[in-house]
Amino acid sequence: MLGEVTRRSLGSNRKRSKRSKPEGVMEISGCEGEHGRKITKGGVSSGILVAAAVLALPLSSVEGRLADRSRVVAARAASVNYDKNYDGERPIGGPVYRAGKRWDAEDDVARRVNPVSSSKNVNKKWKNFQSNSNQNNFSEENNFSQEILENNFSEVNKENDFSEVNKESKVERALSSQLTGCCYDYAGTTAAEMCEIYGHDCESGETPSHDSGDEDCSQQGLSFIGISFSVNTASGHPYSYQLCDQFPMENIIDRNYDYVMSMDEDGWLVGGGYKTFDYSGKMPYIDSSHTELLRVGSIDPDHGGTSIETVYEAMESISFAPFSIYPEYLKGGGGHHSGDDNQQETVPSVDITLIVSIVETYEDNDSYSSYEYFLDELFQAMNNVGGGPCMDDDDTDPHVSMARGVKFKSSYHYTQYMAAANTEIAAWQGMYPQGVPIGSSGYAAFPPGRGGRRIHVGYGNLYFFFDRANITKAFAPSRDLTDNEAYYATLYKTSDLSDYYENAVAGDYGNDKNNDQGDWEHNPYAWDAKMAMHDMTDGWDLPPNCEMEGETFFGIPLSRKSESGLQSTSTLQNQFDFEYLVDRNNTYIKSFGTNHGWLVGEQIGNGAGSIVDKDTAHIPIFYTGTTNADMGGVTLSNLIKIAQNIDFGTLYIKPAFVFVDDDGHVKLQFEVDTSSALAYLYDVLCQQLGLSWNYESPSNNLGIYTNCAMHAAGDRAKYGCGPDGSGDGGFCPQMTLGYSVRFASEEHAAAYLDRSNNYVDYWRGLYPSGVAVGTDKFCPSGGCLGLFLNRYDLYSVFKPDLGGSWVEYNGMSMAPTISPAPTYVGGCDNVQNFHLDLCFRRKNAPKPTAAAWKSLGTVGQFSVLLISFMAVTLSLSIFLSRARKKRRKGEGYLQFFIRDMTRRKKRKKGKKKLRGRRRDLEEPMINEKGRRSKSRSGRSRSKSKRASDGRSARSARSGRSGRSGRSVSSQGMKSIRSEVIQEGGRRRSRSGRRSKSRASSRSSRGEKERTEQSGIMDFSVSSPQSETRLV
User: What is the pTM of this model?
Assistant: First the structure.
């Protein structure tokens, strides 16, 4: 095995910090307004009824009573300033308790309307009322309660100027009680000042930087030459390559989350990749498992890199034999250790890696292996073609990165997973004791999705990886496999492997070859609301009863059409162009800490070799977790149902500043306005989908909840980040521009932040009260909410003010179809009803022809167009052929067409006139006189002709008795022609085919019948069939 594998310590387990108990400080507030009056009257009247019922009961010494909160209130009142009369008699649970919660909510709304009112006077009135009610009888209590009510609200009305409140209420939205727009308090503040207000450093440049010491290489890259272990599985991405028939990589991953709790957003890099609608919401990438042999680095020669053409030239100039790969063991180590909160206990984060080795073969009496010869030739070839200084000077230790930022449920689960995975690898070692060439018998096209030609994969190939997920070219070995190599290369696909698995033993891989983390276990009850501010390059710390992670979230889509030709997306907003915030030319940055580059879209051929992603710009608002209901999540369809019934206002956003967070990620912070529509939406999402936490439970009309959301039910926007927030919640609208951005130096980082924030100042001046993003085609009114499967795929979009929702997936958009909003007076003529289904369909109703055309579908439309085209071309060809034959000399096609059309009309008129001239045909064609004259003429024929007529008649009869198409003798034809006579200018064929005997027999028989037959009903005339055949 090449290279010594070193172990990296995962670090000691963090000490669990003590959590301060939440202070349950509650105070009663004034019951102002209509709601307060109703609640007070209801409380007094219900108290009278309860007291009357108690007096009616028989006296007995029963000391038991229903459980209530009096003991809890008494305990709290002893330590804090707490009003024990507020809910001391409130039941612990049940409908009465829930009704009380509703009254509290109404009371809270009243306090929002009258923020100046003091609750102390109201509390004092309530205390006086309760103390006096115990001393007065029930006859006096009603009058006293009325007096208390009048005094109470008269004093409240004196203290508060409701006229001013009414003036303010005109500015607020009627349904959600927040302003249209946002961020009025800091309208004149610059981005640099906002960065300081929010507690970040945007000036010094003290951020994680990358100083490689190589002045000639100004840009690090990720392109490399290596071996692929990609497989195509039923549970993975359907477009994953099948390039490895030897190692079933899906057998060493935990796709079912039996051991693993969470990972970074990429998930498992091996085993087939992820489908688009995977429950975990991981990035839908193809299988990218590989081992590097040579890190080429940047492919931009202007920054010290090596161009792709240069790499191809070097690889084609050398030859190599198929290399055999031997699987060693699985290990864990490294990890990001970013944590969700430095003050909370989190489980260790590790990277899962499969260690492999290149089997080195030696020739006779040679101390240099064939693989070492190959490396020398490869480095020499790269130098000969002008390889850049960013290329590594040494080969890479062979290994397969399987997953990053992995968090296991406990140290026990970690050990069990390692034992199971290494048992599988032990079986592979038994199958391939001397290693095996990696390859497949299938076909593949390189690069993917670029029109590459499908070729036979074969065995022992090396590949050039532009990035982890894109193979651009395959290089075949110089020779075929030997019989021994071919046997092992096809062993897994053609043989029974049960004996290998029965004899496989994992040994001490889980203990000796992995880091010793000690005993630890994930504590789900240590979950905190601040964990919603998550580092996506690390795994989540899941809350209780959640068995599977998920990346699904509600957010604001900000992506635009990507410059990438591999992946593209529609333009979802045209208010912000984030290209001004990225460093495409690597003026300030040198590399990224992950395979992802700029998240606002990468270009094909980017020098860093980052994954060519489409623009995924967005602002995450609420992480809902997994969509697998069996693992504690909520299904995608239920998320849509809940969002469709949330009445939120138009979502306004306003950029604040660009900064680098504690994990080294470059982010764009948006202003936090706790009274904006965005804050109201966050509050409602927490109320309806948040976790049951700190005695707060979610509630929605559908009764659908989740255990995997990363926000608490009691969390609110006022607990989030920013100067108006307490910093204890998960509300902090940010957009990530790049993960783990490494700057050339601190000065470069400071210069980048200064340049970016100068442009943010332009946006802040352009939109002083925020802006509702959208386009003419996507959310034209602006301020829509999106449901993301992951940061890659936007699935559904919801309009504000219950304006409807539609599916926006993979660049496809559908019109709104669901509008639960109430109707207003005026029908569809009222602008408020514009987005209702009925009005939308009426205004946008397609024409019947358009509907019929659309109903044909693609195949039907193509068929109609094809038939129409064929009909037109056939008509033109017929017209041209007629014109060539019949047009006059010097006559054009148009003139011929006009003449031909008019000539046809004249012919029709001539035929009508001709019918008028032939009215005599309506008379009997053969009368009695004509028949006698014809018979006399027939009898006066010479005898010399009768013989020939007899012969011709026999031949005619034989021809008539046979089928059509037989030939007639020349003598018979002559006799027939001789029988044709002219009568009245017309030619009519006589029955010359009759023989003498037949004529004589008929003449004798006809003499008898002539007296009875006459006119057109005389059927003794020659058969019309005979005339038809002879014409």
Answer: 0.64
